[in-house]
Structure formats: structure tokens, C-alpha cells
Design brief:
Helices cover about 50% and strands about 10% of the residues. Strand 16 (about 430-435), helix 18 (about 440-445) and strand 17 form a beta-alpha-beta unit. The protein folds into 3 domains: about 5-290, 2-enoyl-CoA Hydratase, Chain A, domain 1, CATH 3.90.226; about 325-500, NAD(P)-binding Rossmann-like Domain (Rossmann fold), CATH 3.40.50.720; about 505-725, N-(1-d-carboxylethyl)-l-norvaline Dehydrogenase, domain 2 (Orthogonal Bundle). Helix 6 (about 170-175) runs parallel beside helix 10 (about 235-250) and helix 13 packs across helix 27. With about 725 residues, it is α/β, with parallel strands linked by helices. It binds nicotinamide-adenine-dinucleotide. Pathway: Lipid metabolism; fatty acid beta-oxidation.
């Protein structure tokens, strides 16, 4: 297998083409890196070669590092990772110095990169080591260093080179936020050098005309000063002070990668380039050896990707959706219509009244207008997308729909009526999906003549922003309905999880106990500031009280009443209800009423926690320790996830982890609830649960599965991860 090939032409240009066999996207493996190194050596040694162009044989340049490389390096422990990374640094440094005289910096061979499309991670770090980067004018191409998004940072010189190229301040969005740009924006930002119609031709022309001085990177030239100032200069100093505060504010100290990245940038800026690379490698090693980065890569990259590619799709023929009927043009229906039309699917958007249907369509118009004002869409695109949406009250328009998504009021009778009306029109083989958030799918399926073609497709609000879609199998749902739902989710580019039918399915089932635990602590007199901060310091994006304000307190009341009606005497949450019902009675319904657990100003901006809480629920004299509050909030969610697994609602822990992060923002640094439990270890987790149970009650009772795993020394991924992946 050769990943890189080289052709030398009559003008003395060696074209090195990266084209990993059998893959649609290039990724760098250690073998690939060795091949590239060999070809560079050969070209540098060959007198007939005047310059080198590195390009790709595929539509894109490269997607990043082959993740097996990191796994392989880790087998050698920290030293293995460090040595592996230093090997990459040597390769890229060889490209950068290109055989030039170390003293005079003369006599090197020009090396340019030509990117036909996307260049991510090492796919940009490699070009950054070349002397000039040309990219095709391909607006779909994404260029950048997204490593931070999966809990690591650019460790093949990208951090050091970009900081020296742009300065710490200008490099920050690319390094700290993983910002990606199209080629034109990447050029404007200084990430790449030129956008060309034919980047290989342009790169070729450049290497043939390049002078010695064109090959010397600023940091290898005499008198180099970092743009924006080094850390010990007043301007640079301010950048680092600000960046440290910003990183800590955003990450709450729970993401090791952001902090390590900043250290690598700061320390690297104080020393010569080659030493800075070594420092980068040390911090990178530290991050790679941290369990958080492994868990994040596993959940947010490997498993998320696997689920999107259909890891749990039943074996059924292609079920691509061509025409979708959406029943109910309210908040959810309108959002589902938008994402479907954006994906090129024809949409019939039905509501009881024509004006409601039109309002639902206007939602898409609004979003497209906003996109146009931000230059993310054009008038033509808007016309095309809106042209796909028919807003009507006429069920006859559903003829020919191969999928229905029902999003009418949360009322079984209304849902039953629209199910029957739609089924009278749609083809026999169409799939009918409901977007209910609380009603059992198997019960709603009773209104269908074809229950094996009836399924839950549960979106989260706002539909256009939320990445997760929960697919729920009713008792009689057949495999083709699951395949259809998965193919639909793939078309609209979201991430699916497939779960079985049970109260609140998976995500809401876990998020409700989190909110409830926070509210319960308010009733106990725990300082609400402590509750909120404890959650954030565990990496939860919103504290439980802010979350209930956002989703609305009356919704909490509605859910509480319905749950109590269903559970009767077994209902465990009276203490929670007392707080929620009291707030609702005061008209404090959360953000939407500008009053809730928090106070809001007239413009709707959230202020401090509402002082009235203290008067009603006086602070307990003795406040719990921070860890106690954190354990209560984390185990409230996590134990529910374990119970969902025990009960067979979840069939795959990968879905449990990915769904938790994308669905309700479960501490992403942890990789999800199962990854978090694995980090703690089952024995320690069980001990904490026993302890919480003794003090706070049976809702923290150690699940039998966890206890058994503790006894055997099992981890969730050892026990359930590999089995599923092999299946
Ligand atoms: P909504 O009240 O905003 O919209 C419901 C729409 O259905 C309204 O426009 C209404 O006119 C229409 N409708 C009612 N009866 C109809 C009928 N007989 N024929 C045609 N249209 C009819 O509600 P929503 O928030 O969009 O929720 C819709 C569904 O999605 C509910 O089942 C809800 O549980 C579920 N859901 C909501 C959320 C959320 O965050 N709001 C999230 C996931 C799922």
C-alpha cells in the first residue's frame, strides 16, 4: 500500500500526491509519514529536482491523523507518544528547511502545497510546514485545526507554527475554538497564502520561480518578532492574561487540552522554534495521556461518526427520503421542515389552519434571510429551499410522501386523528413517525393501521441547532422503519441514537433527574449559587436552575403532573414539585416570562439568582461540600443512564454517551456518562452511590449492574463497548 507517490516532470518539479488507497479522505498513518519522508529525501537529493509540490489525488487534501496512530503511540506510554510526535516534527521540519544551509539559509528547494479541498488537522499542519500554501477556490472546503473540539490540540507543529505566523491573538480562534474557514477566509486570515483556480499549476509555477529568501520562514530569519508581541512585551502580555482568563472562564478548568495548548503557546513563545516544538510535544503528550482526551475522541469523533454512518442501522435497502409530510407547523414542525428542505427533500407542511401553516414556512424564510445577511446563503438558495416547502391544510397534498413526521399538539386524541387522516392518503409503504416527547410510541401506534411502519423520531429544540435525534422503536416497529428514520437523519446531517420505548425515552429521562436534584437542593436550603456553580465546575453547560428557566417552569409543572398521574404513590418528587409549583403560581415561568429561578432585566438578560428564593427557602446553616453537590448532580443523570441500559432502553453505550453530550450537554470532557463512570471506576462509583443513598435516599441506589461490575472489576467499555463494535 502506498499513500504517497512522486512524479518528476521535465521542468524539475516533483509532484508528491497523497492518495490513501481505499479511503475517500486522506488520513496520515505512521507508514504514510515514513513514505512521505522517503520521497522528500529522494527529491531533495536528486539534482534534477528543483522544487516539490505536495498535493492530493482526492477531492480533498486530508481529514487529519489516522487515530490508530495515536492509539499505537500510547501503547508505548508517555515516552511512546512523545517519541512518535517528535518523529513527526522531524519530518515536517525537514520539509520546512528543505535542505538549506543552516547558517546562510541558502540552497533549499522550494516546497509548496496544493490543496484541492478540505484540509484539517495534520492536513493543515503539513502544509504549514511547506513554504507556500495554495488552495483551490472551493467554497465547500474546510480549512483549519479542529483538534480542540475532540479534547486534544494541534500537536504536529500546528500550534507553534500558527502562533508564530499570526501571533497569539490572531491564532487564538483557530487553535482554541477550532474555527474552520473556507479557502478565501483562510487566506484573508493568513492561514494559507493563495487561492487559485488550479492550485497544482499555481504551486508548480511558484516553486519554479521561488528565490532562496522565499523559503525562509519568518521564525527562521534573523530578528524574528512574534506578531502582536511576545509574552514579556506589554502588548503580548495582555493577550496572554486575557486568554488565560477566557480559557478558564469557558472551560472551568475541566478541559485539559485548552489549558495545555495555552501553556504550549506561552512557553513556546519564550524560546527558539525547535525548542518550542519540543515543548509543544511535551504538552501534547500530557493531554494524550489524560483519560479525558481519549474519552472525548472516542465519543465525539469515533463513535459519533460510527453512529452517523449507520452503526446500528438494520440491514434494509436504501430508504432515502424524497418527500416528507410534516403534520403540525408549530415550533417543532417548522424547524423539521427547514432542516428537511435544506437537505433537498420536498416538504408538505400541514397545519389545521392555513395561516399557521404559512407561519411555519415563514420560519424557514426567516432563517434563510438571517443566513443571507451573514453571507451564508444567497437569494437563489433561499428561493430554492422555500420552493421545496408547500404549506397547506390539505391532507391530499401528502400523496406520494414516503415519510411523515407528526408534530401536532402533545395530545393522544389529536395525534390519533392526524395519523388516520394521513394514512388514508400516503402510500402503503410510507413510514409514519411521531415527534412526541412524552407519549409512549407503542400507545400512539395503536392509531396506525401499520404499526410496524410506525416509529418515534424525537427532535430537540431548536431543531436547526440541536445535533441529536432520538429514534424510538415502539413494540411493533419493524426494521425498515428504523432504517428509514436513520437514513432521514443522515440526510439532514444530524446524529442519531436508536432507543426502545419507555417513559421519556433516553435524553429527557436523564435530564429531568438532573434538574430535579438541583431544585430539591433549593428546597433543602442549599445555596442556589453553590448548586449552579457546582454543575458548571463539572463541565455542565448550564446549571440545573438555569436549565429549567430556559425550558420553562410551567413545562416542568406539566411534566410533574403527568408523571405523578402515571406513577401514583410511587412518585418520588414532591419536594421538587413544591418549589416548581410555587414559582409557577408566582407567575415566574422562567426566561419566557422574564422571571424564574433567576432575575432578568427588562431586555430579557439574565441577572443573578432571584433573591426571593432565599426568603421562601432559607439557607441551611451548614452548607454541603462542593463535591457532595457535584456528586448529587452527576449521579442523578448518570444512574438514570445506567438504568436505561439495564432496562434495555439503551442498547449501545456508545449511543448513551454520544446522546448525552449532544442531547443535553452532559459534561463533554468526560466523554459521556458511561465514560465518566469508567474513569471513576465501578467500585468507586458504587461506593459513592452507597454513600449518597445513605444520606439522600433510594434514588441513588447502586444499580445491580454497577455493583456487579464493581465486584468483577469491569468497565462499561470493556464489557459493552467492544462487543457492540465487533457486532
Ligand atoms: P406547537 O404548539 O408549537 O405546535 C403544534 C402545532 O400543531 C400547532 O401549529 C397547531 O396548530 C398544530 N396542530 C394542532 N392540531 C392539529 C391538527 N389536527 N392538524 C394539523 N395541525 C395541528 O408545539 P411544538 O412545541 O412544536 O410540539 C409539537 C410536538 O413536538 C409535540 O408532540 C411535542 O411534545 C413535541 N416536541 C416538542 C419539543 C419542544 O421543545 N417544544 C421537543 C421535542 C418534541
Amino acid at each position: 500500500m502506498t499513500d504517497f507517490t512522486m512524479k518528476k516532470d521535465a521542468d524539475g518539479v516533483a509532484i508528491v500526491t497523497w492518495d490513501v488507497p481505499g479511503k475517500s479522505m486522506n488520513v496520515l498513518s505512521l507508514e504514510g509519514a515514513a513514505e512521505l519522508g522517503g520521497l522528500i529525501d529522494e527529491a531533495l537529493a536528486d539534482e534534477a529536482v528543483k522544487g516539490i509540490v505536495i498535493t492530493s489525488g482526492k477531492a480533498d487534501f486530508a481529514g487529519g491523523m489516522d487515530l490508530n496512530v495515536i492509539a499505537g503511540m500510547k501503547q508505548g506510554g508517555a515516552q511512546g507518544v512523545f517519541d512518535g510526535v517528535m518523529g513527526l516534527h522531524r519530518l515536517l521540519r525537514k520539509i520546512e528547511l528543505a535542505g538549506m544551509d543552516p547558517k546562510t539559509r541558502a540552497g533549499g528547494k522550494p516546497i509548496a502545497s496544493a490543496l484541492p479541498g478540505t484540509a484539517l488537522g495534520i492536513g493543515l499542519e503539513l502544509p504549514l510546514s511547506t513554504h507556500r500554501i495554495f488552495a483551490a477556490d472551493n467554497p465547500r472546503a474546510r480549512i483549519g485545526l479542529p483538534e480542540i473540539m475532540v479534547g486534544i490540540f494541534p500537536g504536529a507543529g500546528g500550534t507553534t507554527r500558527l502562533t508564530r505566523k499570526l501571533g497569539a491573538m490572531m491564532a487564538a480562534p483557530f487553535l482554541l475554538e477550532g474555527k474552520l474557514s473556507d479557502p478565501k477566509k483562510a487566506k484573508a486570515a493568513g492561514l494559507i497564502d493563495e487561492v487559485a483556480e488550479d492550485p497544482v499549476a499555481a504551486a508548480r509555477a511558484w516553486v519554479l520561480s521561488a528565490k532562496d529568501a522565499d523559503l525562509v520562514k519568518p521564525w527562521d530569519a534573523k530578528g524574528y518578532k512574534m506578531p502582536g508581541g511576545e509574552p514579556f512585551h506589554p502588548a503580548g502580555f495582555m493577550t496572554f492574561v486575557g486568554a488565560s482568563a477566557m480559557v478558564h472562564g469557558k472551560t472551568m478548568g475541566v478541559y485539559p487540552a485548552a489549558k495545555a495548548l495555552l501553556s504550549a503557546v506561552y512557553e513556546g513563545a519564550l524560546v527558539p522554534f525547535d525548542q518550542a516544538l519540543k515543548i509543544e510535544a511535551r504538552w501534547f503528550t500530557k493531554v494524550i495521556m489524560n483519560p479525558s482526551s481519549a474519552a472525548m475522541i472516542r465519543s465525539l469523533f469515533i463513535n459519533k461518526g460510527a453512529l452517523e454512518k449507520g452503526a446500528n442501522r438494520p440491514d434494509a435497502p436504501d430508504q432515502t427520503v424524497r418527500k416528507v409530510g410534516i403534520l403540525g407547523a408549530g415550533m417543532m414542525g417548522a424547524g423539521i421542515a427547514y432542516v428537511s428542505a435544506m437537505a433537498g427533500i420536498e416538504v408538505v407542511l400541514i397545519d389545521a389552519r392555513q395561516d399557521a401553516a404559512e407561519r411555519g414556512k415563514a420560519y424557514s424564510e426567516n432563517l434563510l434571510d438571517k443566513a443571507i445577511s451573514r453571507k451564508k446563503a444567497t437569494e437563489e438558495k433561499k428561493a430554492e429551499v422555500l420552493g421545496r416547502i408547500t404549506a397547506t391544510t390539505d391532507y391530499a397534498a401528502l400523496e406520494g410522501c414516503d415519510l411523515i413526521v407528526e408534530a401536532v399538539f402533545e395530545d393522544p386524541a389529536v395525534k390519533a386523528e392526524v395519523t388516520a387522516r394521513a394514512e388514508a392518503v400516503i402510500p402503503q409503504d410510507a413510514i409514519f413517525a411521531t415527534n412526541t416527547s412524552t407519549l409512549p410510541i407503542s400507545d400512539l401506534a395503536k392509531a396506525s393501521k401499520r404499526p410496524e411502519q410506525f416509529i418515534g423520531i424525537h427532535f430537540f429544540s431548536p431543531v436547526d441547532k440541536m445535533a441529536l435525534v432520538e429514534i424510538i422503536k415502539g413494540r411493533e416497529t419493524g426494521p425498515r422503519a428504523v432504517a428509514k428514520a436513520l437514513d432521514f437523519v443522515r440526510q439532514i446531517r444530524k446524529t442519531p441514537i436508536v432507543v426502545n420505548d419507555a417513559r421519556f425515552f433516553y435524553a429527557n429521562r436523564c435530564i429531568i433527574p438532573y434538574i430535579n436534584e438541583g431544585v430539591r437542593m433549593v428546597a433543602e436550603g442549599v445555596n442556589p449559587v453553590l448548586i449552579e456553580n457546582a454543575a458548571k465546575l463539572m463541565g455542565m453547560p448550564l446549571g440545573p436552575l438555569q436549565l429549567v428557566d430556559e425550558t420553562s417552569i410551567d413545562l416542568g409543572v406539566k411534566i410533574a403532573k403527568a408523571t405523578r398521574a402515571a406513577m401514583g404513590d410511587a412518585y418520588p418528587d414532591d419536594a421538587v414539585d413544591e418549589v416548581l409549583f410555587w414559582l409557577a403560581d408566582q407567575g415566574r415561568l422562567g426566561r419566557k416570562s422574564n422571571a424564574g429561578f433567576y432575575a432578568y432585566d427588562e431586555a430579557g438578560k439574565r441577572q443573578a439568582l432571584w433573591e426571593g428564593l432565599d426568603a421562601k427557602y432559607p439557607r441551611a446553616g451548614e452548607q454541603p461540600d462542593l463535591h457532595e453537590v457535584q456528586h448529587r448532580l452527576m449521579f442523578a443523570q448518570t444512574l438514570e443512564a445506567v438504568r436505561a441500559l439495564e432496562e434495555g432502553v439503551l442498547e449501545d453505550i456508545r449511543e448513551g454517551d454520544v446522546g448525552a453530550i449532544l442531547g443535553w450537554g452532559f459534561a463533554p470532557w468526560s466523554g459521556g456518562p458511561f465514560s465518566w463512570l469508567d474513569m471513576l471506576g465501578a467500585a468507586r462509583a458504587a461506593r459513592i452511590c452507597d454513600d449518597l443513598t445513605a444520606r439522600h435516599g433510594a434514588r441513588f441506589a447502586t444499580p445491580a449492574l454497577l455493583r456487579e461490575m464493581a465486584a468483577r472489576g469491569d468497565s462499561f467499555y470493556d464489557r459493552f463497548g467492544a462487543k457492540r463494535q465487533a457486532a
